[in-house]
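Lest this sound abstract, we think one record worth quoting, the chain in one-letter code, the fold tokenised, each line plainly labelled:

>
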Amino acid sequence: RRLRHVCDMRVSNVDKHTRPGETPVRLCNYVQVYKNERIRESTRFMAATASEDERVRFGLRKGDVLITMDSEQWNDIGVPALVEFEAPDLVCGYHLAILRARRDVHGPFLHRVVESHFIAAQFHVEANGVTRYGLSHGAIQGVAVPLPPPAEQVAIVRFLDWANGRLERAIRAK
């Protein structure tokens, strides 16, 4: 199915500025998404402010998938990170899109799908630009994703997490 039928997408416009009269927030920026597969409570966030509307629209929830929307290299866009916790003051920063899984879609499964080579290839084909490459809303929403039944989604994520854990332990041992 197309991504537009699997999740809701919001593209953030919350910048890094602190403005008087706005509410203090912790801002999840491009760098946190690009460098981390998972957004955890221990992740260090930037302090900024946001309007009440921005806090509601771009507040992060457990199970959300964040993706980078642009980059200097065409093969470096659409990088995902899974949000593993939620807090009332945690907000998504600009240059990122929030993918919020709909009913019958497991957030961690959506993360694993978006980080796959199959999806990355679709993003690469859809990337626009010459010196800076980006993805349009339509390009992201038009990506075709596999969607097995919910129980299989959970089983796939459990297996991939287990296999990745084994690989990470082997790398640390080396």
Remarks:
- The chain has a mean pLDDT of 93.
- Strands lie at 7-11, 23-28, 38-39, 46-50, 65-68, 70-71, 80-83, 90-92, 96-101, 133-134.
- Residues 150-173 form the longest helix (24 residues).
- The two ends are 41 Å apart (CA to CA).
